Amino acid sequence: MMGLSTTHQGGALVMKFKQSEAQNQRIERITTSHLIVGIDMAKETHVSQVTNYRGIVLTNRHLSFSNSIEGFEKLQRWMEDLQQSIV
Fold this sequence. Notes:
The chain is an alpha+beta fold. It has helices at residues 21-28, 69-86, and strands at 3-9, 12-18, 36-40, 45-51, 63-66.
């Protein structure tokens, strides 16, 4: 879980994010061979996009898929195709 704290340094307000050690360890395991898939979850239709380990978007289009078994199967096929085409 991430928290936020503020301090004053030289009259300026400085915001610091605190991450848990477990989260830091997960982030440190991301390598150049990883694809990061972000999903905007909604009630009926989800949208996903893929980036590399540096946050650079790797596809020209996002993927929209329904909140159903078929939709998540579509997402799985999309990710598998990306792995083959990008690697």
